[in-house]
Amino acid sequence: MDNEAALPRDFDALRTMILDRREVLPKRLAQIAAYALSNPDEIAFGTAASIAQTAGVQPSTLIRFAQHLGFDGFTSLQAVFRERLRERQTSYEERLSALRGDTHGLSKNRTILNGFLTAATHSIETISHNVEEDVLERAVDILSGAETIYLLARRRSYPITAYMAYAFGKLKIRNQLIESTAGIDPEIISFAGPRDAAIAISFSPYASATIEHAAALSARNVPVVAITDSAFSPLAQSASVWFEAAEGDFSGFRSLSGTMALAMALTVSVAEKRRNT
């Protein structure tokens, strides 16, 4: 009974438990943990076989993971992920119903627009819920004290740092966007030192260059502020401070709305802090 009483009954409590144990999880269980936190909807909807295939493990590993957390089996663990969806259903069911209603008589293009707007709203609300004020304050403190802010991102994350570089430039804040077409990114970041800072952004599947550059900067005592999608992200391991940004998607295309809002909040907050000190 004591063990049953200690089991997490909601997703936030389960997430906290997993994060507390991430350093001691065996390799395969850590792999499942990372997948579960990054893809909670897939855990809620999938079968043990389909989840195992997507996560790259055996179905028996899911059972071992659930039992490691104190559940009697994977079905009991999955119930927590399904409850998360039920808790969200009240707020999102109305939107989904409205979206379905709006599609009546509208063009396909308008339907697509409505879908992306819904995904963007979901992303912004999720990130707003996940960002802790003390983490935000620490990130702003690090960045506002930096001589140069290095900006690291590739692939779909790149537009975020590109816009941050533009905004920092307009705000007269020295920054360096790592985007060398000459292939000298390692040489550029070699100029960074402990009096500088870096912002690194990457989501699964993680851009290897971003992960490598962030690790290299961290090894040289350059503080890294990271935006990524999971505590198990390799980017989080190199970060002095990191934010979890779980973006929504529409038809498989993920939004960047929440991440962009967070990035611009950091940019403007840094400028404000510098102006007032």
UniProtKB/TrEMBL annotation:
Residues 139-276 form the SIS domain. It holds the Pfam family SIS. PROSITE patterns: HTH_RPIR, SIS. Residues 12-88 form the HTH rpiR-type domain. One of its GO terms (biological process) is carbohydrate derivative metabolic process. GO terms for molecular function: carbohydrate derivative binding; DNA binding; DNA-binding transcription factor activity. Keywords: DNA-binding, Transcription, Transcription regulation. This is MurR/RpiR family transcriptional regulator. It comes from Phyllobacterium pellucidum.
